[in-house]
């Protein structure tokens, strides 16, 4: 039998692979998409959509509980099964939509697009073996994009069973709110789950942080707010702590942590969550055998999505770039445009917006102060408190601030921004656009923003930098800040 021929084979149907396949359809190419498990990957299951649905429900519950308690009323207990059903419904809604879209594209493509629920392994630079619940077959593709994603990083000598000691993949296996949970890792995912479980008010939460504070990659003014809110909500933070051992004894988690002075402490919890990052799913793809270059962390060492084998590309969590759904989709589309289009521009990561689902939510783009200082960049920075924003006052949610960094010169090009507070994620995109355009801040200062809105705070933050703000930072010093960083220190 003659081998099927394709212009492009995409291995992996997560966010980056799905986006790549659909972009290739735009070019009228013959495409095959392979996904062995669930279309949408970690963008839906055990990841972005599921955890953020948990977060939305947790925030709603916490808000309702606070309102009822302020009126002297008791908040009714909510069964974890009800919460899980809401999460499952959200996941099913999105996954069904993606599956239906694939089926319709396949039907209407006149044989140009094919989706196979199976796993692809590269035999050589142009042949891919496909396995699944069918007899294996081999296809030939002129180009291949590998987008097999990642999985939670495990800890050696820790018996992770996804029932008592969990990764993010095991959260959906819970059937009740645990009485207590210890979370290993104080990065984004660890802090998000600490926020979620503490917000429901049914679980004692402990967080193991290797530094003296959480979110060590963010500026202290931001991480301190999140940290204080966590502690106010009952989260106990093991600071400057390293996990020495963790075992399951009598159905409970027994763990020992050590401190810099050599002392140790032992604790018990009902459940544990290991949240120390992710590793690429490179096994069984055939990439190692073909000699695709990898970095020391085991990620594909790509150049603008292209591997050292010219017709093989890698996108999403397979690479060492930012492991986010929006970044993966961008990389998938970009790879296809490099292959079939005339796109000679390199991907720009400096204007990628991020969001952390904490209390309150945090959004960011570009550099923060910590990164600028480490890079030896001189900058000016303005910070505008939510207490000065009418919409935040009206919402009765005034905790937060906007902080914008610009170059320390007359152009004042935007280096980065952090937004902490209500609607933070909705306020970031205009700044991201200006960063990608290598623009200054004057455009933002002159825009007429809707009133009352949270984004008015961005405009006033910019006006502070231009020294024409309504509120003067020399008056409201506790809410407004305007500083310069040069030669390793602040210049007032």
Describe the fold and architecture.
With about 500 residues, this protein is of the alpha/beta class. The protein has three domains: about 5-45 and about 85-150 and about 280-340, FAD/NAD(P)-binding domain, CATH 3.50.50; about 155-275, 3-Layer(bba) Sandwich (FAD/NAD(P)-binding domain), CATH 3.50.50; about 355-490, FAD/NAD-linked reductase, C-terminal dimerisation domain (Enolase-like, domain 1, 2-Layer Sandwich), CATH 3.30.390.30. Helices cover about 30% and strands about 25% of the residues. It contains twelve helices and 24 strands. The protein has helices at about 15-25, 50-70, 80-110, 190-200, 220-230, 285-290, 325-340, 370-375, 390-395, 430-435, 440-445, 455-465; strands at about 5-10, 30-35, 115, 120, 125-130, 135-145, 150, 165, 180-185, 205-210, 235-240, 240-250, 250-260, 265-270, 270-275, 280, 310-315, 355, 360-365, 380-385, 400-405, 415-420, 480-485, 490. Strands 1, 2, 3, 4, 5, 6 and 17 form a seven-stranded mixed sheet that branches. Strands 18-19-22-21-20-23-24 form a seven-stranded antiparallel sheet. A hairpin with a 5-residue loop joins strand 13 and strand 14. Helix 1 runs parallel beside helix 7, helix 2 (about 50-70) packs antiparallel against helix 3 and helix 2 (about 50-70) runs parallel beside helix 4 (about 190-200). The longest helix is centred in the first third of the chain and has 29 residues, at about 80-110. The protein is globular and about 80 Å long. The chain starts with a strand and ends with a strand.
């Amino acid at each position: 039998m003659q081998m099927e021929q394709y212009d492009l084979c995409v291995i992996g149907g997560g966010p980056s692979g799905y986006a790549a396949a659909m972009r290739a359809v735009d070019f009228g190419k013959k495409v095959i998409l392979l996904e062995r498990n669930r279309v949408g990957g970690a963008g839906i299951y055990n990841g972005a959509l599921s955890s953020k649905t948990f977060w939305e429900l947790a925030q709603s519950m916490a808000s309702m509980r606070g309102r009822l308690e302020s009126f002297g009323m008791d908040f009714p207990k909510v069964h974890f099964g009800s919460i899980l059903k809401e999460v499952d419904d959200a996941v099913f809604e999105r996954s069904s939509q993606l599956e239906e879209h694939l089926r319709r594209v396949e039907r209407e493509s006149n044989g140009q697009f094919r989706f196979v629920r199976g796993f692809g392994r590269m035999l050589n630079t142009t042949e891919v073996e496909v396995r699944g619940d069918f007899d294996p077959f081999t296809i030939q593709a002129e180009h291949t994009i590998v987008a097999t994603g990642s999985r939670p990083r495990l800890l050696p000598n820790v018996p992770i069973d996804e029932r008592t000691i969990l990764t993010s993949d095991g959260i959906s296996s819970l059937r009740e709110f645990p009485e207590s949970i210890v979370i290993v890792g104080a990065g984004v995912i660890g802090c998000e789950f600490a926020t979620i479980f503490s917000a429901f008010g049914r679980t004692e939460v402990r967080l193991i942080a290797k530094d003296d504070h959480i979110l060590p990659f963010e500026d202290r003014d931001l991480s301190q707010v999140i940290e204080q809110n966590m502690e106010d909500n009952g989260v106990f933070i093991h600071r400057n702590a390293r996990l020495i051992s963790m075992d399951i004894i009598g159905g409970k988690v027994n763990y020992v942590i050590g401190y810099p002075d050599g002392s140790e402490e032992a604790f018990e919890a009902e459940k544990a969550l290991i949240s120390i990052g992710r590793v690429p799913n490179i096994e069984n793809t055939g990439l190692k055998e073909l000699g695709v270059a990898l970095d020391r962390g085991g990620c594909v060492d790509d150049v603008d999505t292209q591997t050292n084998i010219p017709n093989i590309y890698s996108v999403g969590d397979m690479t060492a770039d930012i492991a986010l759904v929006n970044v993966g989709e961008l990389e998938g589309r970009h790879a296809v445009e490099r292959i079939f289009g005339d796109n000679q521009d390199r991907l720009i990561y400096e204007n990628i917006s991020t969001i952390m689902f904490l209390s309150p939510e945090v959004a960011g783009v570009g550099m923060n102060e910590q990164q600028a200082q480490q890079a030896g960049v001189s900058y000016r920075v303005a910070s505008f408190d939510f207490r000065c924003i009418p919409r935040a006052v009206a919402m009765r949610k005034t905790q937060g601030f906007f902080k914008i960094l610009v170059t320390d010169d007359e152009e004042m090009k935007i280096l980065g921004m952090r937004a902490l507070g209500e609607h933070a994620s909705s306020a970031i995109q205009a700044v991201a656009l200006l960063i990608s355009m290598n623009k200054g801040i004057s455009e933002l200062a002159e825009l007429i923003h809707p009133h009352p809105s949270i984004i008015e705070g961005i405009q006033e933050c910019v006006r502070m930098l231009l020294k024409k703000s309504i509120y003067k930072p020399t008056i409201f010093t506790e809410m407004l800040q305007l500083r310069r960083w040069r030669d390793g220190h602040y210049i007032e």
